[in-house]
Amino acid sequence: MKLEDIAKKAKVSRSTASRVINNDRYVSADARQRVLKVIEQEQFEPNPAARTLVTRRSNIIGVAIPQTANVFFGDNSYYPMLLQGIAEAVNKSDHAMLLWLAESHEVRDVFAKRVVRHRQPDGLILTSVVDRDPLFEYMVKHNRSFVMVETPPAYADRVSYVTIDNVGAAAEATRHLIQIGRKRIAHITGQLTIQDGIDRLKGFRQTVAEAGLLYEELIKPGMFAAEFGYRLMQELIPLRPDAVFCGGDTAAIGAIRAIHEAGLRVPDDIAVVGFDDLDVATKITPALTTIRHRVMDIGSTAARLLIDLLDGRLEHPHHFVMPTELVIRGSTGGQG
Amino acid sequence: MKLEDIAKKAKVSRSTASRVINNDRYVSADARQRVLKVIEQEQFEPNPAARTLVTRRSNIIGVAIPQTANVFFGDNSYYPMLLQGIAEAVNKSDHAMLLWLAESHEVRDVFAKRVVRHRQPDGLILTSVVDRDPLFEYMVKHNRSFVMVETPPAYADRVSYVTIDNVGAAAEATRHLIQIGRKRIAHITGQLTIQDGIDRLKGFRQTVAEAGLLYEELIKPGMFAAEFGYRLMQELIPLRPDAVFCGGDTAAIGAIRAIHEAGLRVPDDIAVVGFDDLDVATKITPALTTIRHRVMDIGSTAARLLIDLLDGRLEHPHHFVMPTELVIRGSTGGQG
DNA sequence: TTGTACGCGTTATCAC
DNA sequence: GTGATAACGCGTACAA
């Protein structure tokens, strides 16, 4: 069944049938009626390839996730939530989502090449972009449409992105630790090749510095994974911190395990704050004080942004800063 | 840059250029050389839409995940692992993956319609198919290419799928509980609208029946989610079971929580066995005895199967049964 | 308001 | 081996 057949059955030309489908104004009510009826009874859907060929739009947006080990699966629900958010926006605007996942330990170059080569999607949502990321560099250089879900590591002024105020949120978390009277506050950072990690460190450092509590030896460069939290906390314990702010919840979980194994108590001996408010934050004992941000909203905002950009409804570059919120729980002496 | 331009630069006709790209035998070494060189220096990629239009193949496979709440994200890494497996197979055969996620509480009908309407993918991978699933019914009825990652709820003889031996694995888990001397073995089932849940119940029931230990009141219909494990275990405790086999690890986690809250010990008072060997299985205390199956392998096998089916390399219908393994841990008195 | 005719970038089918 | 040329199914400028 093709458009031609629909037109024939509705006794109009193919052009008119096409106009009906594309909501063109210049169609008589009568003709429109007839065409719609035939479309309905034939369950007709236009061939997307033919359509793409002429309109140069596939209505597909791509999502690239370049690092999956320990992040995509494992104890971290960040990407699933992000995808869920993207899916909602994508559905709403009648698009589809093409998903690119890096293989377990694929080098970024190979992954980038694969994503770039396929030219199906109209635009891309980029996640976990690192400094000198080949995929990112390529997209910028070739002027291809994309948005990011974090602050970009470079070219921030000519890239569109959705992010949260990492510096501010980290500062808020740190202030909270200061307010409950902690004096030796450690920081296990997130990945410092990703802007999120860098900004959180910045917010932390500023805040402790202002309070006269900056101790460089209490800052440990880590990653968004439980093992790092665990191992780095073990290194920190001999330095006698009374609080630790972790760049991510999973790292915080690892840190708490290390603290408990050392025979210390949370929060009495060491208070712990995480970041992200993942599901696990409430599943451990004590429940984790953390920074909440709605990952799903970030995803749907990013998708909407990309589509608006593609449709010319929004100017490029465009930035969104999504709100965060400090959630106080047992790990810093709150309830739960 | 289109094929025409490449041909011109290489001083051949468009046909010959096309032949080179599609590895046609009838091209002189000389011509091939020239074309390849131009393609290389121009970084040329054929327009996928044009190609799809004529070949009727998009080299895209779709993945439909109709239930996301409490499953896609949350404490369950099943889908992410599945996607990762699919991605690997899809990459290897130079395809792409289109992901369809249901909205939070979207009814199956709406979701099915959305997935079916878009005709981009050549075939679909269906997950979490329930009895009378509209998407499933549609695919079967309209003879569209798809494979499932569980045993289908119907038409098993004319549907291609990848699954595990749920009956056998559940029997093995149950036998293990019997072997360690348990007499009152309960079962919190998985979702009984999904074949996996039904088959696991079947394996359980057969095994306890053979041992003369079947007590219907100890069988609780549940779902693959922690809340269900928790609540149903609370109902079970007054019935004094000395073991419980849960249809999924997350339910088992909930069950353990209920047991602990009742002041009982695992495994001393009640031994617990899960199913799936999710990440969380080793993250709780005591670590969970469970049935392991490589979800990633299921994903990649399913994708490979679908592509082989589409390419005519395999006959439809085709079934794969992937291996499982009982992993004994602390929750039934093993190590850890 | 409607229809004709052309073009989108490929692959497939022919002759040569 | 190679090169015209006809599809593939649709959108749209232009003419009517």
Structure description:
Two copies of one chain form a homodimer. The longest helix of chain A is centred in the middle third of the chain and has 16 residues, at 195-210. In chain A, helix 9 (195-210) links the parallel strand 6 and strand 7 (219-220). The first copy, chain A, folds into three domains: 3-55, 434 Repressor (Amino-terminal Domain); 60-164 and 295-323, Response regulator (Rossmann fold, 3-Layer(aba) Sandwich), CATH 3.40.50; 166-293 and 326-332, Rossmann fold (3-Layer(aba) Sandwich). In chain A, the strands form three sheets. In chain A, strands 2-1-3-4-5-11 form a six-stranded parallel sheet, with helices on one face. Chain A has a four-stranded parallel sheet with strand order 7-6-8-9, sandwiched between helices. In chain A, helix 1 crosses helix 3 (29-42). Helices cover 42% and strands 14% of the residues of chain A. By secondary structure, chain A is of the alpha/beta class. At the A-B interface, helix 4, helix 5 and strand 2 of A face helix 4, helix 5 and strand 2 of B. Chain B binds a DNA duplex (16 and 16 nucleotides) through residues 2-4, 12-16, 18-19, 21-22, 26-28, 31, 46-56.
